[in-house]
Design brief:
alpha+beta; 7-stranded antiparallel sheet; 5-stranded mixed sheet; 24 strands; binds 2-(butylsulfanyl)adenosine
C-alpha cells in the first residue's frame, strides 16, 4: 500500500509525464515540430502506463495514455447537436460569388463587411464538445440535427487535444467543429498495404476517412492516419468577436487549424484566393474541393442568420468537378508482382482534371459487383486523391439493352494458369511465380521510387530488358553492367544514357536495409512492415533464420506477415537472389543510428540539386540520413529543405515557387557542425 507521501510523489510524476507527453503530442501532431526523439517519447509513455497500472485510482480519461480505450461498440449512440450543423450553399463561378456578396451587403444595410477565405477540406465534418476543458463527446454531422457519437474514434486522433491547452480554467461548454481527413500520401500508403493484405481498398481519402470514423473498434481507427482541421468555435469563455480571431484562439487551445486561411476585404480578393487554390490544389498534401468564404464578424453572422440548412453568412466556392461520365467499353485484367489480378476499366476517352483518361482501376471482383457494373454501361469516372482515376458509379438509367453482368476471369490473362481466390480475401491470384507479368512486376517494384529508387529503370525499359532476357530476376539489375555494348546498340540508348543507368544502379547500393527488404517484394511486407522487421531483426541473417514465433513476437507483425516472411526465406529462388544482392554489395544490415533529439534533420525531407563543393551528393545524403532525415528526388509540398549546390536544376525554381526553405552549402555545413 503506498503511503500518502509516495502517492503524492507518484501523482506529481504522473502529472508531469502527462504534461510533457501532451506537449510533445502537440508539437509532433499539430505543429509538426517534434522536439524529442521517438525513443524518449516512448520511454515517457511506458513510464506513465506503468504508473497508471500500479495506481489505477490516478488514471483519468484525459491521460495521453488513454487515446485508445474501451471495448468495440455494438452500435453508435445518437446525439443531438446543441445547434444544428449546417451545410454550405455552393457556388461554382465568379458571378455566383458576386451574387452572394451583394446579398450579404444588402442584408447588412451596406455596412462594411470583411470575409475570411478558407480551404474546403474534403473530409468528414465532426463536432467536439469539451466540458471543463475536457473532451467529453464527439459526433458526426448526421442529418445536421443529430449524428452518431464517435468519441472513442475521435480520441485516437492525436492532433485532437483530449484537454484544451489553456492556462485559465474553462468551466463552461466549448464546442469545436472541423473536418477529419486523410493526407493523400497516407491514403496511398494505406491502400497499398491493404492491397498487399488482400483487403478492400478505399476509393479516395474522403471515403477512407468516412469509413474509418464509422468503425466500431477504436483500436483499428487508431492505426489509420486521420488528421483534423478545426474551423469553428463556440463557447462563452473562449469565443471572440470575429471568425479570424476564433481561428487564432483555436490554435491557442491546441487545435490544428488550416494554415491557408486569409482575410479578404473585397469580393475580388475572394475570387483571387479561389483562383490561386484552383491552380495550386495539387501542391497541398490533402484534397480540397473548393474554398469556403465566411463573413468575419460574428455580430454580422448573427444578423445574417440562416435559411433552411445553410447559413447566409457563408458559401462554398467549389472548383470545377473532377468527375465525368463516359462509356465503359470493356473490363481487362492486369497481373501484379505477387500475382494479384486487378480488373481495369477500358473507357471511352474523356477529359478530366487536365488529362485525358482512358483507363481506370476497378480494384477487385467485389467492387465490380457492388457497383453492379456491366461492360457497355455509362459510368462516372472520378479523379480523387489518387492520380489514378476510378470508376465510382454507374448511371443505371442509361444502361443499354442486352448488356450482361460481368464475370471475373478464370485464367491468368498472361500465362493461362487457373486463378485462385483465397477465402478471406478480395483478390484473385495467379500462382505461377514465373508468369512473365509477375517477373516484370517484381523488378518494377524493386526499382521504383519507394524501394531501391533506380532512376531511369522504369516500366518500359524493364519490359524491354525482360523480353530480351537481360533481366530474369531483380538481382540481374546488378549484372546489367556486363551488357554495356548490347544495351548501347538498342534503339534510344547511347553512351550517356547507359552511364546514367549504371550510376543509378550503383547509387541504389546505398539504400538502407529496410528498403532492400521492402524492394524484395515479400507478400504482406510493405515499407512500414519492412521497417518494423529490421528494427527488431537488424540484419539479413537474423531475418532469414528467424522462427515463426520470433517474427510473430514483433509488435505489429501478425501471423499472416510472419508466415509470408518465413515462406519467402525458405524458397530457394529467393535465397539465391538474396545471395546475389549481397554479393553485389547491397545493404544487408541496418545501421543503428542514434539521432540527437535536437537534430535539424529529424523527420525532415530533403531534396538535393546542383553540385556541392566540399562533399559528394552521396556523402551529403548519408549525413542527412544519419541525422534522421529523408532524401527524396523531387520537390513537392512535403519537402522541408532543398539543398542547393552549383548549377542547380529546375528543382530550385520549384522550391521557390512552393516557398520551401533552401539551404546553401554553407548553411548545410553549419547545420552539420552544430550537430558535432
Ligand atoms: S464551415 C455553416 N469550413 O463543408 C458552416 N466547412 O457543406 C459550416 N467543410 O459539412 C461549415 N472545409 O464538412 C466549413 N473550412 C471549412 C470547411 C467546411 C470543409 C465541409 C464541412 C461541411 C461542408 C459544408
Amino acid at each position: 500500500m503506498a503511503t500518502a507521501t509516495t502517492s503524492a510523489g507518484v501523482k506529481r510524476r504522473i502529472d508531469s509525464l502527462r504534461t510533457a507527453l501532451r506537449k510533445h503530442d502537440h508539437r509532433y501532431y499539430v505543429l509538426a515540430e517534434p522536439a524529442i526523439a521517438d525513443e524518449e517519447y516512448d520511454r515517457m509513455m511506458r513510464e506513465l502506463v506503468s504508473l497508471e497500472k500500479d495506481y489505477p485510482e490516478l488514471l483519468t480519461d484525459d491521460s495521453p495514455s488513454q487515446r485508445v480505450a474501451g471495448e468495440p461498440l455494438k452500435e453508435f449512440r445518437t446525439v443531438v447537436h446543441a445547434t444544428p450543423m449546417l451545410s454550405l450553399a455552393n457556388s461554382y463561378n465568379e458571378e455566383e460569388v458576386h451574387d452572394f456578396d451583394r446579398r450579404v451587403r444588402s442584408l447588412l444595410g451596406n455596412e462594411p463587411c470583411g470575409y475570411v477565405c478558407e480551404l474546403k477540406f474534403d473530409g468528414v465534418a465532426v463536432s467536439l464538445v469539451y466540458e471543463r476543458g475536457k473532451l467529453v463527446r464527439a459526433a458526426t454531422r448526421g442529418d445536421g440535427t443529430q449524428g452518431d457519437e464517435i468519441t472513442q474514434n475521435i480520441r485516437t486522433i492525436r492532433s485532437i487535444p483530449l484537454q484544451l491547452r489553456t492556462a485559465k480554467k474553462i468551466l463552461g461548454t466549448v464546442e469545436v467543429r472541423g473536418e477529419v481527413f486523410m493526407h493523400r500520401d497516407d491514403f496511398r500508403r494505406m491502400n497499398e498495404e491493404r492491397e498487399l493484405e488482400g483487403e478492400k481498398t478505399f476509393i479516395n481519402p474522403r471515403n477512407s476517412a468516412a469509413g474509418t470514423l464509422k468503425l466500431q473498434d477504436a483500436k483499428i481507427v487508431a492505426q489509420r492516419p486521420l488528421n483534423f482541421y478545426a474551423y469553428f468555435l463556440r463557447g462563452e469563455d473562449v469565443q471572440r468577436s470575429s471568425h479570424h480571431e476564433n481561428l487564432k484562439t483555436l490554435t491557442k487551445l491546441g487545435f490544428p487549424v488550416g494554415e491557408h486561411s486569409q482575410l479578404a476585404k473585397s469580393v475580388e480578393a475572394v475570387v483571387d484566393y479561389w483562383k490561386h487554390w484552383e491552380d495550386h490544389r495539387e501542391e497541398l498534401p490533402y484534397d480540397i474541393d473548393g474554398v469556403v468564404v465566411k463573413v468575419d464578424s460574428l455580430r454580422q453572422q448573427k444578423k445574417l442568420g440562416a435559411v433552411a440548412k445553410s447559413p447566409r453568412w457563408a458559401i462554398a466556392f467549389k472548383f470545377a468537378s473532377r468527375k465525368a461520365e463516359t462509356i465503359l467499353k470493356d473490363i481487362t485484367f492486369q497481373v501484379g508482382r505477387v500475382g494479384t489480378v486487378t480488373p481495369v476499366a477500358e473507357l471511352q476517352p474523356v477529359f478530366l482534371g487536365g488529362t485525358t483518361v482512358s483507363r481506370a482501376t476497378l480494384h477487385n471482383e467485389d467492387y465490380i459487383h457492388e457497383l453492379g457494373l456491366r461492360p457497355g454501361d455509362t459510368v462516372i469516372v472520378e479523379k480523387g486523391g489518387d492520380v489514378i482515376p476510378k470508376v465510382s458509379g454507374v448511371v443505371k438509367k442509361k444502361r443499354v439493352d442486352g448488356s450482361r453482368p460481368f464475370a471475373f476471369a478464370k485464367k491468368c490473362p498472361v500465362c493461362g494458369t487457373s486463378l485462385f481466390r483465397p477465402e478471406d480475401e478480395a483478390n484473385y491470384y495467379c500462382e505461377n511465380s514465373l508468369c512473365p507479368a509477375q517477373v516484370k512486376g517484381r523488378i518494377e517494384h524493386f526499382a521504383h521510387r519507394g524501394a531501391m529508387d533506380i532512376e531511369g529503370l522504369g516500366e518500359a525499359i524493364i519490359d524491354q530488358f525482360v523480353e530480351l532476357g537481360y533481366l530474369k530476376s531483380y538481382a540481374d539489375i546488378y549484372k546489367l553492367k556486363n551488357r554495356r555494348s548490347s544495351i548501347i546498340a538498342l534503339e534510344g540508348w547511347g553512351e550517356k544514357s547507359v552511364q546514367n543507368l549504371y550510376d543509378a544502379v550503383e547509387g541504389s547500393k546505398k539504400r538502407p536495409f529496410s528498403r532492400v527488404l521492402f524492394a524484395m517484394g515479400i507478400r504482406h511486407v510493405g515499407a512500414g512492415v519492412a521497417q518494423l522487421l529490421v528494427r527488431n531483426l537488424p540484419n539479413i541473417d537474423r531475418l532469414v533464420t528467424a522462427t515463426l514465433s520470433e517474427l510473430q513476437n514483433i509488435q505489429g507483425v501478425g501471423p499472416r506477415i510472419a508466415e509470408s516472411v518465413e515462406r519467402f526465406f525458405k524458397d530457394r529462388h529467393n535465397l539465391s537472389a538474396l545471395e546475389r544482392l549481397r554479393k553485389a554489395g547491397l545493404q544487408m544490415s541496418e545501421r543503428q543510428v542514434r539521432v540527437a533529439s535536437g537534430s535539424p534533420f529529424i523527420d525532415k525531407t530533403v531534396v538535393l540539386t546542383g553540385t556541392l563543393d566540399s562533399l559528394s551528393r552521396e556523402e551529403a545524403s548519408q549525413k542527412i540520413e544519419a541525422l534522421g532525415g529523408k532524401i527524396t528526388s523531387s520537390v513537392s509540398s512535403n519537402t522541408d529543405y532543398v539543398l542547393v549546390g552549383a548549377e542547380p536544376g529546375s528543382k530550385l525554381e520549384k522550391a521557390r515557387k512552393l516557398g520551401i526553405r533552401t539551404l546553401s552549402e554553407r548553411d548545410f555545413l553549419e547545420m552539420l557542425s552544430s550537430e558535432e
